Fold each of these.
Amino acid sequence: MSASAKPLRVVLCWHMHQPEYRDPGTGTYQFPWTYLHGIKDYVDMVAHLEAHPQARAVVNFAPILLEQIEDYVRQIDICLKQGVPINDPVLNLLANDQWPEANSDDFRQLMSQCLRANNDRIIKRFPEYAQLADYAHWLLKNDGALIYLAPQFLIDLSVWYHLGWMAETVRRDDDRIKRLQSKGRDFDRDDRLTLLRLIDELLKSIAPRYRRLADSGRVELSFSPHSHPIIPLLLDVHAAQEAIPGASLPAGGGYPGGEERAHWHMREGARSFERFFGIHPRGCWLSEGGVSQASLRLLDQHHVAWTASGESVLRNSMNAAAKGQEGAANAVNHFRAYRFDDATVRCFFRDDGLSDLIGFTYADWHAEDAVADLVRHLEQIAANCTDPGHRVVSIIMDGENAWEHYPENGYYFLSHLYEALVRHPKLTLSTYSDILADGDIEPVAYPRLVAGSWVYGTFSTWIGSADKNRGWDLLIEAKKAYDEVLASGTLAPEVVEAATRQLAVCEGSDWFWWFGDYNAADAVSDFERLYRRHLTRLYELIGRPAPESLTHVISQGRGTPARGGTMRHGQSDGGGGP
């Protein structure tokens, strides 16, 4: 069969991750995003795959996310059986019988949280929610009036908040949701517990549903390192200078013991993944698609068959191999599999243009028009890509943050997308492991990978600016203290284990993502405060006083990035970046 006669293989790779939101001292969730994305996005994404038996996809999970979902399920079960409060003040609104005073800071914070939803796609969609939100915004500006509020206002607002964040597939099929939406107001305790029980059911269902699809060969599940660190920077912070020569680095130098920590995240990530899904992952999306030659060798040591990153990483690597020859950047073919130097792991590369169309453009289009446009682009690629056995298009993106910007959580877009790709005679949905198993892909060899991530092909989102480097300096200082105390042998084994896991949380990528004045002030404040709290807890566990520097704010945002900063374009000319 000629190359043009073979269907173009399309891999949809959805990455799911949230950082550790629990206060490390109290265990209280500081933000509710893990369970809210659970009941909205992780549920909807698996439901669409279940509804299209011929569809295939890769779904990547960060282990720290799965472990938090598991913790929510445990807490909700105890709450429903024993009445013990849930360590999430927002979710606990559904179980609570005692309400904060209407003019208290707790009341204001909870009311504000129940407004943190997409205004056009979620709040305004429901007239009762929109009216409550209007009242709440007025009250927050005129908080002297709060004293006159009855608890029922916050009760109704919290119920609508959770109804708004509900998966669209559940909203359409579950009679409990239909009844609550029809009731509209004056929700009572039974209503709240009905909603809480449904949330419990949905969170419990997530891992088993994806596992069933994986067992039947319809989905490939892959993993990220345990707490989502940028592995190349743990291995060598100078990796940041491969794509940006002269990039500023932390004053504290390299990350001490970074290779050992990288192995820990890989080992613990795979162990956690296997516990939830019962299989050893063949693929690994290194956090943020952050790759380097050293990280590829690390993947080989952990028996990983494939990984993936951004299109610009490939472009930088090909330019380096061509040693600046004219036209090298234009010759990039990211529709192939690659291997670099002595590493055997196969590398695939994201089509930034197609992925960003889904992430940033199609939300404002009619669903059928958006899917038709995407299919047209894929057909053009199929017509122009003539290399036998090398026709693979990778659409890799956040599987959770885009859909709140779509009507009805992307229900129509995703439904039409899977239907169109399943029935198309020249396109076929596939997974990376299936592609490698076909045996007709011979990877293209290049002498060396230039380190970078899926965002712009660099690490500038996580290192290189004054604020980001300051965050690294604080982490490096804490790691040195951790190493000194562990070397002394004075800590009990269980304390060593707790401190090691706390260190892992501090190494996560999300803290550094948010540092920078181009981000929104509220989000920067949320994440930098929690980051400092995590570092402080690490010092507490190892019995060292936390440095005074951890009382100072690291970063202050003042920007208005696209999609609130939760997503980035793949290439720097797309806007929205540092």
Amino acid sequence: MTSAPTSRFPYAKGSDGSRRLGYGADYNPEQWPREVWEEDVRLMGEAGVNIVSLAIFSWARIQPASDTWDFGWLDEVMDLLHAGGIGVDLATATASPPPWLTTAHPEILPVTATGETLWPGARQHWRPTSPVFREHALRLVRKLATRYADHPALVAWHVNNELGCHNVYDYSDDAADAFRVWLRSRYTTLDALNHAWGTAFWSQRYSEWGQILPPRLAASHPNPTQQLDFKRFSSDALKDHLLAERELLGELTPGVPVTTNFMVMSGIKGMDYADWAGAVDFVANDHYVVPGPRDRDELSFSANLTSGIAGHRPWFLMEHSTSAVNWQPVNVAKQPGELARDSLLHVAHGADAVCFFQWRQSAAGAEKYHSAMVPHAGADSDLFRAVVDLGGTLEALAPVAGTEREPARVAVLFDWGSWWASEHDSHPTSRLDYHREALDWYSALLRLGVRADVVPALHTDFSAYDVVIAPVLHMVSQTAAKDLARYAENGGHLVTTYFSGVVDENDHIWLGGYPGALRELLGIRIEEFGPLLDGDTVGLDLELPGAGAHATGSLWTDRIDVVGQDVAVLARYRTGAYAGRPAVTRRSTGGGSASYVSTRLGIEGLAGLLPELLAPAEVTSELPEEARGSVELAVRRDAHHRYLFLVNRGETPVNLPGTTGEVLAGPAAAGGLVLPPREVVVLRQPAPGSAGADQGRPLG
């Protein structure tokens, strides 16, 4: 299972001591004059805020010079928040070193692959492997922990901030030294490293550890395993900094849980968060919507994956936006209802706290056009009224706090190693997008109204799922191959795709034909890939019940030969170089099956194919037919109840006939439920087997 945290979650407490969902934001009082602070606390009370993240970028204010400390202002803010009934997730403030530190020690600044220094003036201008930075950062952490260990407002520690957002890859001499230490730990001997890196190619064999460098700018394609190991190392280097701060906090404040904010969202790929999960007491995540036709699919996918990383235990939404952000090419404001829908979709997938960046919109600085809970227009605004309304909704959802996500029958595997390796240079195509392919499968499941979990590939018990979908599972070790074969033999149904099973954990090709490590399980053999040029497509005939169905593939094709027993061809290429050859196959094995999809079908094509791939496991939608594709269903549960979150994904009302349960939040109507556009309804039902439980379909 996932290397999950222990879930020492900093629950907000109601007046009777019961759990409540957390609600709040990053709070940056140092940006505002003293007279604003009391008004902030008053407005927080009006909005229902019960937790804030404090001091995230306050290092220069707390320590204005090497031997000068100023805690007076922070003491006062902590006291004001406590008096207002607001808990504090106190940051260690190490995210951005102050000017005096970078002036005295420019050797802490990151270096790019081309040898350029990243200078101060923005944020995160520090090397994860710098011993000088580590020394100063831990000195600050010790000061903060010692001073606030017993403060009644302190409910959690917030290590650094968005580790690796801007400094994940550092190519400095400090990084080179640390990379060599990491490699010696991984391989022990140079012979083992030379084998793993395939250094017989291009005369790259190393005879001393000191000859090894990070993959800096090179004359041609850098060694692919060197690139892969540097990605692994860079994720580990940031995790090591997280652990260094956590260890000190654990020593000084053992009763206070520690976290940091992950960034499980589109475009962030440098940190292996599944590996990081065990380094925190509870998982926290930042997520921002990128407007587009699939924006809420991606939000759902990322929230779902965050839950998978957290082992389906409650997690903390540390940041998202009330409306527009400031860093996209065009920063679009959210429509009415989207603030609440986005927030509640995170709650549906396991978030027990909903927080924003930030509380009060900045008047100066790089993020002054980023929305906040209190906008430039002030409290007399539609945005703040929506914030207050959401606070009321979250208060009504207090019974959900502490519940876990109910596992689905279908899992979509997500693997950081395959993500990194499949998109290297000098590959059959540079157009492959691992995240997009995984999201396509998830979007197609949403289109069909089928609940699915998104889970880390290397930390998942496959046997918990009837169907496991592993898109572009490019990197497969011998152990993983055996686990997948055992899963299918024992009755599970595996679905994988093009460019899967091709390399081992060292990025070495599995010889004998593709898909390498999965060839025997799938019962097929591929001698040569057929990547497609931009704009080229191929037609497929789906050989399914009802026949005559067509689909279109892009990006990739495979020249498949069926070599195993009990292999059915579910689709053939109608056009292209491999016309007449299999395009989609399924091999029956033991009590289960293993299917292969050899081209990018996109959401429409996958939605047409998935019912056949799900059929052997008898997986269908739990939603009424008229709601499928328009409504997303997510379920949380405890020993006594199920909590159904029904989210209208579209712009038109949706009827949900036969839907039963106590309405905790959202619209209710006698005689049936109509879900308006961009609305969410939360229903409470008795758990199966409990008194009053409906033994029929969950929604009717």
Amino acid sequence: MAPFLRSPPFPHVAPSAAAISAPLDGVEDGHGIWDDVLDALVAARVGGSFWGRQPAPARVLVRIGTPIDPGALAGLMEDQIGLLPGKGQAPMPGRMLPADCDPWWMIAGAQTLHASEQDEWALVAGLLDVPVIGPEGRRIDPARLRAETGRRIAGARYRDPFTGRQTDAATAIRLLADWRRHLDGNRGIVAASGMAFWKREAIREFLWDGAHSPPFQSVSRGLRCARLARGALAIWPSRVPPDTVQEAAAQQVPLARVEDGFIRSRGLGAALHPPGSVVVDRTGIYYNARAANDLETLLATHAFPAPLIERAARLRARICLAGVTKYGPEAGRMLALPAGRRTVLAIGQVDDDLSVRLGGAGVDGNLDFLARVRRAEPDAWIVYRPHPDVQAGHRKGHLSEAAVLAHADAIDSGAPLMELVQAVDEVHVLSSLTGFEALMRGRPVTVHGMPFYAGWGLTRDLAQPSARRGRRLTLDQLVAAALILYPRYLDLQTRLPCGPEVMVERMTDGSKPPATSLMRLRALQGKIRRFMTLSAEYLHG
């Protein structure tokens, strides 16, 4: 018999690598399973095939082969009776359900379940307090079902698939809960458009919903597919035509916007390093301050229970200790700062990036931003830090040395960024993620635009804040939403969905995919572009 707590059948991972449990012989009772573990199980809705499909609910569920009084079905229409695969032929009319349904979904919408006490679905029903009618026609005592669930959980050994080490049932439930949240976030996505070809393997893994990954299609075909299937189209916003949002609205097709997460990889996206983290947003996207999005809604409304805040605090401490940033731990030589003078770090960005266009609050690129920093800090010693994609020659936003030094006192592109952040008196950003990373390290941050972390009482905001952000948050509430609840992560080694803690450990220990020929070609292309830009500056004085 398969353990009650088990892993989804991830198609891109060997079952032995993904396995979170295995049967344990000789366990007769569940005395080691306490009520808080079972309560956590109910809250997480894991156990059984929780990744399975979610057809329309049925009022009565019947395991084929379970005797049933015909009177129990009186007055019900055929589609209100859900038949679960079992031994023998169905003794009554009803709607045959797939074998791999999500039992939590189906039972939560049912009035009764007809099955035996040992049936896995009966265990779920007992936890959800949905009546289970046994073969004798009487309701099975929920306490007996709860005890049986305890025995099932105690009857397995558990392992951490990321380390291979033994763990306990409570830890397994927390991991399965993260997997459930990841998979549930992908339900209903039936096609994907605008994904760069070098990201597609990772995107397939990120968007797998427990049964399939969406096919990659053109926008027009993807919209048609989503409309016919009454599902959603996943898009990479910067790589689809500008009228995609309007066209989707006209066809009543929901969009799921996909973007890089905030702890991404050990290399630049512009250098073709595949993402280890993405966000999938069903209402907007985090960098567009002009409209609501899933992250903003989390920040504005989530209850943030104490265990989540404690987890966020531990995660923040680990990130700061490890020196992890969006692209991983850094190396380089620290910049010398003047003693006895106020120092300010101004973070450059990519001029045509959507986060600048939609979250820049009217600031017109890096030069305008830098001039505003000088006006806000007339007596400070200002160091300007170019964006790494711009510095590598891949993106727009390069400023000549003369243009920078008209407003700043120094240019830095080699110091460890977080060491520099912690050394200056204040960090100024337009909408850069560096502002969020500086907040995590307890540094004062002045924001000229309206990034996701502004407007919550944690930053000095020079732009008019959105009325949707009237709530004051703690730093760890911000971290919990932005790094735990909103993104998805893939372990660089196992390719399993993971939590941010695993991603941070992998980035700290140096784990990364091997460099490909495309990565090497992209790096060379960037060097050539940068050489041409600097040569043109030199020739024109």
